[in-house]
Write a structure and sequence with these properties.
4 strands; two-stranded antiparallel sheet; elongated
Length: 127
Protein backbone atom coordinates (compact mmCIF):
# COMPACT_ATOMS: atom_id res chain seq x y z
CA UNK A 1 0.00 0.00 0.00
CA UNK A 2 2.87 2.43 0.76
CA UNK A 3 4.36 1.76 -2.68
CA UNK A 4 1.04 2.63 -4.29
CA UNK A 5 0.84 5.95 -2.37
CA UNK A 6 4.43 6.78 -3.30
CA UNK A 7 3.78 6.01 -7.00
CA UNK A 8 0.64 8.20 -6.90
CA UNK A 9 2.56 11.13 -5.34
CA UNK A 10 5.34 10.87 -7.93
CA UNK A 11 2.79 10.82 -10.77
CA UNK A 12 1.00 13.88 -9.37
CA UNK A 13 4.28 15.76 -8.98
CA UNK A 14 5.23 15.09 -12.62
CA UNK A 15 1.85 16.31 -13.89
CA UNK A 16 1.98 19.39 -11.67
CA UNK A 17 5.43 20.41 -12.89
CA UNK A 18 4.40 19.79 -16.51
CA UNK A 19 1.37 22.06 -16.12
CA UNK A 20 3.46 24.82 -14.50
CA UNK A 21 6.04 24.58 -17.29
CA UNK A 22 3.32 24.84 -19.95
CA UNK A 23 1.84 27.93 -18.28
CA UNK A 24 5.26 29.58 -18.11
CA UNK A 25 5.79 29.01 -21.84
CA UNK A 26 2.37 30.51 -22.64
CA UNK A 27 3.22 33.60 -20.58
CA UNK A 28 6.49 34.02 -22.48
CA UNK A 29 4.66 33.92 -25.80
CA UNK A 30 2.12 36.50 -24.59
CA UNK A 31 4.90 38.78 -23.40
CA UNK A 32 6.67 38.55 -26.76
CA UNK A 33 3.43 39.39 -28.58
CA UNK A 34 2.76 42.36 -26.31
CA UNK A 35 6.27 43.68 -26.87
CA UNK A 36 5.83 43.37 -30.62
CA UNK A 37 2.54 45.29 -30.49
CA UNK A 38 4.10 48.04 -28.37
CA UNK A 39 6.98 48.36 -30.83
CA UNK A 40 4.53 48.67 -33.72
CA UNK A 41 2.59 51.44 -31.93
CA UNK A 42 5.82 53.28 -31.17
CA UNK A 43 6.84 53.20 -34.84
CA UNK A 44 3.41 54.55 -35.82
CA UNK A 45 4.01 57.53 -33.54
CA UNK A 46 7.39 58.24 -35.13
CA UNK A 47 8.66 61.78 -35.46
CA UNK A 48 7.39 63.91 -38.30
CA UNK A 49 9.43 66.48 -40.20
CA UNK A 50 8.32 69.63 -41.96
CA UNK A 51 9.86 72.51 -43.90
CA UNK A 52 10.56 75.40 -41.52
CA UNK A 53 9.52 77.86 -44.25
CA UNK A 54 6.22 75.97 -44.76
CA UNK A 55 6.77 75.95 -48.53
CA UNK A 56 4.27 73.11 -48.87
CA UNK A 57 1.88 74.26 -46.18
CA UNK A 58 1.42 71.72 -43.40
CA UNK A 59 2.78 68.75 -45.36
CA UNK A 60 4.92 66.45 -43.20
CA UNK A 61 7.47 63.74 -43.93
CA UNK A 62 8.27 60.55 -42.01
CA UNK A 63 12.03 61.07 -41.97
CA UNK A 64 14.52 63.92 -41.98
CA UNK A 65 15.76 65.27 -45.29
CA UNK A 66 15.55 68.42 -47.40
CA UNK A 67 12.52 70.34 -48.54
CA UNK A 68 11.92 69.56 -52.23
CA UNK A 69 10.92 73.20 -52.87
CA UNK A 70 13.48 75.35 -51.04
CA UNK A 71 16.12 72.67 -50.21
CA UNK A 72 16.23 73.64 -46.50
CA UNK A 73 16.69 70.90 -43.93
CA UNK A 74 13.35 69.60 -42.67
CA UNK A 75 12.72 70.39 -39.00
CA UNK A 76 11.18 68.04 -36.48
CA UNK A 77 7.52 68.93 -35.84
CA UNK A 78 6.92 69.66 -32.17
CA UNK A 79 3.84 68.06 -30.65
CA UNK A 80 1.44 70.60 -29.26
CA UNK A 81 0.64 69.88 -25.65
CA UNK A 82 -2.74 71.02 -24.39
CA UNK A 83 -2.01 73.43 -21.58
CA UNK A 84 -4.33 75.32 -19.29
CA UNK A 85 -3.62 78.23 -16.94
CA UNK A 86 -5.47 80.42 -14.46
CA UNK A 87 -6.93 83.56 -16.10
CA UNK A 88 -6.01 85.51 -12.95
CA UNK A 89 -2.38 84.25 -13.14
CA UNK A 90 -2.55 83.28 -9.41
CA UNK A 91 0.46 81.02 -9.86
CA UNK A 92 2.25 83.04 -12.51
CA UNK A 93 2.91 81.17 -15.74
CA UNK A 94 2.23 77.72 -14.26
CA UNK A 95 0.29 75.49 -16.66
CA UNK A 96 -1.72 72.30 -16.23
CA UNK A 97 -2.33 69.46 -18.67
CA UNK A 98 -6.10 69.27 -18.21
CA UNK A 99 -8.94 71.77 -17.86
CA UNK A 100 -9.85 71.98 -14.20
CA UNK A 101 -10.12 74.67 -11.53
CA UNK A 102 -7.31 76.88 -10.24
CA UNK A 103 -6.17 75.52 -6.87
CA UNK A 104 -5.79 79.08 -5.51
CA UNK A 105 -8.83 81.07 -6.71
CA UNK A 106 -11.02 78.16 -7.92
CA UNK A 107 -11.71 79.79 -11.31
CA UNK A 108 -11.92 77.60 -14.40
CA UNK A 109 -8.56 77.20 -16.12
CA UNK A 110 -8.38 78.54 -19.69
CA UNK A 111 -6.41 77.21 -22.62
CA UNK A 112 -2.89 78.64 -22.69
CA UNK A 113 -0.66 79.52 -25.63
CA UNK A 114 0.91 76.16 -26.55
CA UNK A 115 3.71 77.44 -28.76
CA UNK A 116 6.18 77.61 -25.89
CA UNK A 117 4.64 75.61 -23.07
CA UNK A 118 7.92 74.13 -21.91
CA UNK A 119 9.44 77.57 -21.44
CA UNK A 120 12.88 76.17 -22.17
CA UNK A 121 15.47 77.28 -24.65
CA UNK A 122 16.46 73.79 -25.74
CA UNK A 123 14.53 74.03 -28.99
CA UNK A 124 16.52 76.89 -30.54
CA UNK A 125 19.71 78.96 -30.47
CA UNK A 126 20.18 82.66 -29.90
CA UNK A 127 23.15 82.82 -32.28
Amino acid sequence: MNKLKFLFLITMAVFTFSAVDAQTKKMSVKTATTTKTTTTKASEQAAKYQCPMKCEGDKTYAKAGKCPTCKMALAKVQKEIAAYKCPMMCEGDKTYTKADKCPVCKMNLVKADTKNVSGGHGDHNHN
